[in-house]
Amino acid sequence: MARSTVRRTVRDAIYTAYERRLMRRLDPSQSPRHVGVMIDGNRRWARAFGGATADGHRAGADRLLQFLGWCDDAGVQIVTVYLLSTDNLQRPDRELSPLIEIIEDLASRISATGRWRVRPIGALDLLPATTAAHLKEVGEATRGIAGTTVNLAVGYGGRRELADAVRALLQQHAGRGTSIEELAEVLDVEHIAEHLYTAGQPDPDLVIRTSGEQRLSGFLLWQSAHSEFFFCDALWPDFRRIDLLRALRSYAARERRFGT
Predict the structure, then answer these.
(1) Residue 257 falls within a domain, yes or no?
(2) 88 tagged catalytic
(3) Is residue 25 included in any domain, yes or no?
């Protein structure tokens, strides 16, 4: 057996043993209900291997399917995935078109498992009409599934979400004949929360970002006000189950204060 193969076998055995140890030490009652994940680093991963950008996004899609399974095992009820921002929509078509195709395929693959309920969130009207229609169809097809809810944030921007929420709120009250003055008298944070893309869901307990970047980039600006954050150096296609378990361990060890 080649020396490199032996090293790889030993390394895999060590990782497997460490994973099992982490899993045994995690208390299911301390698992987050809702995890947000910023899958950053696909392009850098592809460049490191001399591949095209689309190769990185495909590898990232494959990793996401594994990640959802890991979250299932950990008892996570909702996963929100940042796939495509409103800023990304300004990228050159030669890069954007393959990415959108990969996202459509990813939504279909998630649906085909029969395990997860897909909920597309974002400004879908900014997407190509066929893409928006496909995402909505997948959402409808998986609506009755009782498993983990997977929010696919596509054409998503935190500022755009807040603008859309306020717009929807104003339209709702205008339809009821409520004046601006009357609305101003009663307006509170819950009124806005009811019109967010994630309305009806608990806010994320934990937000994970890969690739070593430590910023939100407009992700869940409202909902993450009291979230815990975990930043991981691994590029997304290299993210391992052990990295998720470390994030969950870190989360469980924290004392959540919810702004107090």
Answers:
(1) no
(2) yes
(3) no
